[in-house]
Structures are given as C-alpha cells and as structure tokens.
Automatic annotation (TrEMBL):
UniProt keywords, alphabetically: Hydrolase, Metal-binding
Family named by the database record: Belongs to the metallo-dependent hydrolases superfamily. TatD-type hydrolase family.
Molecular functions per Gene Ontology: hydrolase activity
Keyword Metal-binding attached: yes
Keyword presence, Metal-binding: yes
Organism placement in taxonomy: Bacteria, Pseudomonadati, Pseudomonadota, Alphaproteobacteria, Sphingomonadales
InterPro entries in alphabetical order: DNase_TatD-rel_CS, Metal_Hydrolase, TatD-like, TatD/YcfH-like
The name this protein goes by in its record: TatD family hydrolase
C-alpha cells in the first residue's frame, strides 16, 4: 500500500487530465489519495471527485490564505459539510505568516474554528504552518487543553522543536517532496528522527514535485519517489515504509479505512 495523504486533484495542472493523473497514480502503487479543499467554492467538486473515485477521499476547510475571503465560514457550516461520508478531514487550515495573504488575527480565528470543528466531528485536522511555529504551537496546545482532537502537520518544513511539540500533542507529521531537495538539509535531518508510527507521505500536488521530477507539475504518482527517498534517508525498507505510512493514514483518517 502507498497513500498520498495530501493532494489537490481539482487544481489547475491536474483537473484538466484528472483521469489520466489518477491512472498514473494507481500504476505507481498508490492505493488512496486525500483530495484537499482550501476554499468553499471547491467543496462541491472535491467531494464529487471522491464520490466518483473509490480510492479518493476529501476534506472540508479554508486555507489560511483564504481566511479573509471567508468570514462567514463558522463552526456550524464546517460541521454540517463534514457529515458527508466521503469527507474524512477538516482543513487545510492553520497559519501562514510568510505570505500574509489574510490578516493574522483572522487566520488565528479561522484556525481555532477548524479545531473546534475537528473536535466536534471527531475528524482529524490538517494543519498548514509557515513562518508561524510559535503561534501554531500555542494555539494547538491551548485548544488541546480545552478538549482532545487529532490531526497532521502537512508538508512539514518546520523545526525539530516544533515537530516534538506536535508529536507530544498526539499529531502526525507528513513529509512532502521537499525532503528530496538538495537544500533541505535541516528537514532531512529531522525526518530521520520522526517516529515511524506517526509518519505520513504526501505530494501536495500539483506543487512541490520531488526529485527527479522538479520543474514538472506534481501529481500523486510522485509520492512513490518521496517514499523511496525517505526510506533510503531513514535506512528503512521501501515496501515496509509504504505499508506503515499507509496504515498510519488509515489510523488517523479512520473514516477512510478500507
């Protein structure tokens, strides 16, 4: 088994040939894909893709870049939309202080709302964090004290210290193709220390195509390249890493369990 725990199948670059993209993923051994939403306008199509494709699942959420544009997305709406049988996660949500496309206070408010939705639905939350480690960790910790929830730090590029904080809260960590980049030395060092029972792999397609596909449009098939690199980096067997990360995926996103 091999799972792409985070991709955007309905984004430009993939949607135009989505059927062929899915076929190539399956030929590469990918047995499940989680198709992530980032704005409300995507929700219907993303869920429809999951309804149509038995190995594709979906999330409901608002990306921090989109927080300003979605002031009406409240707890009730997230919880309602997450009831669909093909929706297995809340997000992606979180904080992005690198681009600051949305007001930081609004990002923080949206992040907390998504955590509340995760807690109420029992679904895991998908966390995006960039240049916002301290606030992300503080909010996750404060909210965990208010009631348990689970989730994953997707496309992990943060510090080893932040990884420990997320793991101590019970969250998982997902590694993308960035780990294969030659300048990702800190991430590579951290990736060797992550516990295998809390590890996921992803593409974030159509972004971040791993070596040897850099410069191309990313797609779920390339998660195999990231997994192979990660197995070699960690000194582990490729097949066993694929199997374990897939089992981790189904443990976390248990609504998707085959």
């Amino acid at each position: 088994m091999l799972v792409d725990s985070h991709c955007h199948l309905n984004y430009k670059g993939l949607i135009e040939e989505q059927g062929a993209v899915l076929d190539r993923a399956r030929e590469s051994g990918v047995t499940a894909m989680l198709n992530i939403s980032t704005r409300e306008s995507e929700w219907r199509d993303i869920v429809a893709t999951a309804e149509r494709e038995s190995d594709v699942w979906s999330s409901i959420g608002i990306h921090p870049h989109e927080a300003d544009a979605h002031p009406d997305i409240d707890l009730a709406k997230l919880v309602k939309e997450a009831q669909h049988q093909r929706v297995v996660a809340i997000g992606e949500t979180g904080l992005d202080y690198y681009y600051d496309h949305s007001d930081r206070d609004r990002q923080r408010q949206s992040f907390r709302t998504h955590i509340h939705a995760a807690r109420e639905t029992g679904l895991p939350i998908i966390v995006h964090t960039r240049d916002a480690e301290d606030d992300t960790a503080a909010i996750m910790t404060e909210e965990m004290e208010q009631g348990a929830y689970t989730g994953v730090i997707h496309c992990f590029t943060a510090s080893e210290d932040f990884a420990h904080k997320a793991l101590n809260l019970g969250l998982y960590i997902s590694i993308s193709g960035i780990v294969t980049f030659k300048n990702a030395k800190d991430l590579q060092a951290t990736a060797t220390k992550l516990p295998i029972d809390r590890l996921l792999v992803e593409t974030d397609a159509p972004f971040l195509a791993p070596v040897p596909h850099r410069g191309k449009t990313g797609e779920p098939a390339y998660v195999a390249d990231t997994a192979k690199y990660l197995a070699e980096l960690r000194g582990e067997n490729y097949s066993e890493l694929c199997e374990t990360t897939a089992q981790n995926f189904y443990r976390l996103f248990n609504k998707a369990h085959p």
